[in-house]
Amino acid sequence: MGIVLGANRYGKAESRVVRVVRDTPRHVIRDLTVTTLLTGDFAATHTDGDNRDVLPTDTQKNTAFAWAKEHGVTSPEDYALALGDRLLAATPAATAARVLVDEHAWERIDVDGTGHDHAFVRRGQGVRTVEVVVGDDWPSVVSGLRDLVVLKTTGSEFRGFLVDEYTTLPEADDRILATSLTAGWRWTGGEEPDGGWDAAYDRVRALLLGTFATSYSKALQQTLFAMGAAVLEAEPAIVEVSFSAPNKHHHLVDLAPFGIENDGEVFVAADRPYGLIEATVVRDDT
Ligand SMILES: O=c1[nH]c(=O)c2[nH]c(=O)[nH]c2[nH]1
């Protein structure tokens, strides 16, 4: 019986790369957490400790910072593609480079009705994400977001579900629907979409939020499907949309023992356990 190396990859996780463009008094900031991972023929380092083919993770980290200056950060997608290409070129044994970017958004502090030139406040609404893979084939680009916490106080029900001897859940014909959304949308061939990566991100995010707000929900599953379908209908260059969505339950509090009516007005926000709904919405021709 022989023992061989199975799947492996390596890189530097979570480099905190902050790029400031200060060519004019009106500065621009892009604040990123960057992870790089190389795959390829790295058997020798595992089996023999022979590191001649290994681009150190320290060098990968340095390249992430250098490329923020050399290539620039016009968008997380563009930067991730360029960084992946560079790491691949620098590492002959690598067959693919995966680059994960989280973007922490800052917005200008409003002073007397105008955004300040160089003072910013962190925008708390979710994190923009990018996952890029460059290698032998065409690049793969999945744009997305996570930790986008949304809630609606009506327009949601959950009824007609399967019932067995362990079912205690009452039917809900008017409930709070809340989730902390993780979503990823895959672009055809990794080409920059119309209007650029940043505008496309804004469009998709707005569609996700708008659809959550306006679609009546018979299940969180239905809401996720509606959000994915809205994105695929509006963006021909997106091939699939994936979601992971905890159902952040809000249980109606029983105030009857105190002689108080509770007509959908007081809830306890349950921490855990939570429902976990995951779905990918695709075109039927892909
Ligand atoms: O939207 C929902 N989907 C479910 O599958 C489910 N299950 C559950 O207990 N509550 C809910 N809500």
Describe this structure in words.
The chain is of the alpha+beta class and 286 residues long. The protein has two domains: 10-137, Urate Oxidase (Roll), CATH 3.10.270; 146-282, Roll (Urate Oxidase). Helices cover 24% and strands 38% of the residues. The chain is built from five helices and twelve strands. It has helices spanning 43-48, 57-70, 76-90, 197-214, 220-234; strands spanning 10-21, 28-40, 94-104, 106-111, 114-122, 127-135, 140-152, 177-187, 238-247, 250-252, 267-269, 275-282. The strands form three sheets. The protein has an eight-stranded antiparallel beta sheet. Helix 2 (57-70) crosses helix 3 and helix 4 (197-214) packs antiparallel against helix 5 (220-234). The chain is globular. The mean pLDDT is 97. Uric acid binds at residues 158, 169, 219-221, 247, 275. This is Uricase. Catalyzes the oxidation of uric acid to 5-hydroxyisourate, which is further processed to form (S)-allantoin. Keywords: Oxidoreductase, Purine metabolism. It catalyses: urate + O2 + H2O = 5-hydroxyisourate + H2O2. GO terms for molecular function: urate oxidase activity.
Give keywords:
single chain, 286 residues, Urate Oxidase, 2 domains, two-stranded antiparallel sheet, 5 helices, binds uric acid
